[in-house]
Amino acid sequence: QDSGAFGATDLFTAGTVATASYQPENMRFRGAAILTNTPPRSAQRAPGGAQIVAMLEPLVDKAARELEIDRLEIRKINAPGHDGWLGAQQGPFTSAYVREALDLGGELFGWEEKRQLSGQRNGTKVTGVGMGLSPFTAGSAGRDGLLVIRPDGKLYVHQGIGNLGTHSIADTARPAADVLDLSWDQVVIVWGDTSKHLPYSTVQAGSQTTHAHTRANHAAGTAMLGLLQELAARELGGSPTDYRVADGRVFRAGNRAAGMDFAEAARRAIAIGGKFSGHEVPDSIRPETQAAVAGLAGEGLIAAAQDNYSRGGSVYTWVATFAQIELDVETGEVEIIDLASTTDCGTVMHPRSLAAQTNGGVFQGIGMAKGQRWVFDPKWGIPFTKRFYTARPPGILDVPLSPRFAAVNEPDPHTPVGAKGIGEPPVGAGEAAYVCAVADAMGGLCLCRTPLTADMILAELEGRPRPYGLLETHV
Length: 475
Known about the structure:
By secondary structure, this protein is of the alpha+beta class. It has helices at residues 10-21, 49-67, 71-78, 98-109, 111-114, 168-171, 174-179, 209-236, 262-272, 287-296, 351-370, 425-441, 454-461, and strands at 85-86, 91-92, 121-122, 125-137, 144-149, 155-158, 187-190, 243-246, 249-252, 255-261, 301-306, 316-328, 334-344, 404-407.
């Protein structure tokens, strides 16, 4: 791997991701970091994952052709199941509904009908169909949740994550409201500035936000539930287990009138102090969260908790993308006719956002396969492709108007909400589906490199020498 003058590590991830794609009986993976006189750089998303998926998937297609097995079936045969394993240590996955995602994708795309179009020619255009299965790590654990019920009766969810336009800042807060059986219009999200006293959180990378912060906020919601029940028992008599929480009230089981609303609970917490008001801080939370609680002390009923839920294995999400393309054999240009993607990402938190994340990642992967690359001056290492017109990502006119999407929507049993991350897994799926579809249009011939630019495709179709050596890159 060449990442400039300071080494590279993506190749280690690539070897691990390869075992999450399929379950080889035997595997040897070797990689080397090559130092070059070029600027340091790294992958935008799915480092190591997108690259290895684009390498593996055309080989799986080749195996299917030589063994005379359907390309979808060979993936289902070799994909991991719930007893699957990951990496050299062969540790377990928390869940793996991969075959279900492949079945759903085949149905959504119409694989049985579309594969009959393979190699059909209309004038200068040849149809190709392909698919890509892409896994990537999808969650971390051990972060903190922080909630405040203020005297206005609303629940304030303090989030250390930011808003990248993916709705995760709101989606991951909902488990706290669900635990308290509270209407969403009674929830306020506090974020974006550490002076607002925010808890210890993930960085928004590695596709970990959804998994990490649904867990953390679920833990905080559970802690808040316990405080409300304890507060009610102290003030109104009985034991904490006598009380229920719903609709912004804590009340005796079977008698909603015997209780108090959240506004009254907040006022009483402030008056009592101690662990109810944040003047006593749990030892189990991180120092960053302890400081946040101290900054909020006395403003209401405060609950902070660390995610101590078990994991039970490696958290991975899989995306399967199916593509139909038309290759113009006179120009080398490729038009994408149809796209469909499915995912195993656990419980669906936000259907529209999930579709946007999945399709956006698929489009980004197609850009990597179609034209994005680094080109450097061979002597001085100065980059040539540093503008959109020299390394253009796909635009809305480069993809079908209505790409289709569906999710298996089976919860991961090792996390309380059941949700896993989605950011990076689609990238490799889009890249691989494009590469495999182009190879299919060329009669199964794989150029075995990306990007598949028009001049490279034409050189192969016309029998001219390839304009690069086997190990040459950035040319």
